[in-house]
Amino acid sequence: MKYLLGSALIVASSLSFAGAPAPVVDTEAGKVQGYRTEEGIFIYKGIPYAANPFTPERRFQNPQSVQPWQGIKATLSDSPVPQPGRSSAQRLVGHAGDLTLNIWRPDNIEGKLPVMVWIPGGAWIREDATESVYDGSVFAKKGVMVVTVNYRVGVDGFMHFAQRPDNRGIADQIAALKWVQRNIANFGGDPGRVTLFGQSAGAGSVAIHLGNPETKGLYQQAILQSPPMQWISPADASRITRQFTDNLGIPADPEAVARVPFEDLVQNVLKVGEQIKDTAQWGRLSLGGTAFLPVADGKIIVKSPMEDLAITDSNRVPVIVGSTDSEFRLYLLPGDGIQKITIKDVNTVIDELGLPASALQAYTKNSIRAESPGDIYAQIMSDYTFRMPALNIARLLSRNQNTWFYDFSWRSPAYNGRLGAAHFVDVPFTFGTIHTKEAENFVGVNPPQSLSDSMNNAWVAFAKYGNPGWPHYSNKDNKTMVFDTTSRIETLKDPQISALWDKFQY
Hints:
Elements lengths: L8 E2 L9 E8 L2 E7 L4 E10 L21 E3 L8 E2 L7 E2 L5 E8 L6 E7 L17 H5 L3 E5 L4 H5 L9 H16 L5 E11 L1 H10 L10 E5 L8 H15 L5 H5 L3 H14 L3 H4 L22 H7 L7 E6 L4 H4 L10 H11 L5 H8 L6 H25 L5 E6 L17 H6 L5 H7 L5 H17 L14 E4 L4 E3 L4 H6 L6
Parallel strand pairs: 3-5, 9-10, 9-11, 11-12, 12-13, 13-14, 14-15
Antiparallel strand pairs: 1-5, 2-3, 3-4, 4-8, 6-7, 8-10, 15-16
Keywords: Hydrolase, Signal
EC number: 3.1.1.-
Protein name: Carboxylic ester hydrolase
């Protein structure tokens, strides 16, 4: 169902809905009205939480308060910020405008609902809080309010300029969390029961918030699904900026970049992402998968996201953290790149990561799938990028706070069964959106409903009661929930592999 009104300002008497209207709700900037689905879910899409950051006076600055409006804003549709699309053409999608969020809640509630705030991923260069797999209706049916957040990515969110604040995309998320604290009660949500959750770059963002004292009190618990803990120094970030601006033939300053059309900016984001894959020139930066990463600015990130988690005691809240079995296969199956990997490539990445000499033999014997050099490479990169960061977070946080660890092991039939338990495959199961067209690309046409129910119910239980229903993780017994067609509790799955990473510094 498409809604064409967007965020136009209109008075209550002229509101027109394809479905039934949702109640008018007061926010600090003005009244909003969404719509009601046939299943009894109230949805508000495109609620501004911060002013348009793409204007000349606000470009590359931290988020600022949204301007109040008169009348009722029809919050019926939403759009992400400017970014490269996911189609093969990868052209510009989204548009400049206010920073927005979206809300799902049931029509009939008693008391205040627990709230889950979702930070979508996208390698720090993409995010879209209204993708169909992020539909919060299943959560809402079970009595949990869902908020999904759009934030700046790529150039506007993370490009480093000496004259501008770093990590503007993370600052956007903080602004959204503060908005939730000030406004969510008007929608029927409880600002004292907020679960912050995200996947991929969204989970990396959650980790950054856990290590940042400024976010204390903005949420009461957190879920991290496949968190990358990669970051970049100001010096390396300056190298990226220079490469980016050299490509365009412009000075490496914010005023020059601001004059470049968005279409050219997003295409250059992709170009730089390809350029930094040259390991000889860029070293470990070539393994990041993206040219734009959070910057250790001494403010939002003091040392590194992992080190900040270790030294910050202000956000010791209950946490669920985990990953999928074969994360990196998502990036190697399209275009059949996995078949192009050689044993030389495997040895190069082992050397670049500084892993022990025994790593190749260990991965050959213990990988979930080791039929080719590409399979081994995929597993090493899965561990580097997502799995070992998740395990390290569990080990670190379980010393001081209630922590639950999980592993998603269901093997997708996509790509003739070769995709496996890859990155993002778990997300439609989390939201209960496995039957959407978007999800089909990741989970196939007949995914197990029981697995989706199991994951979604665990997340709901955590949001409502602070316990997902399996034992806490501890460094003594390594209790892990393995989500699969038949889910089960196990101890650490591959101790020989995890031992290779014991001295790795994130």
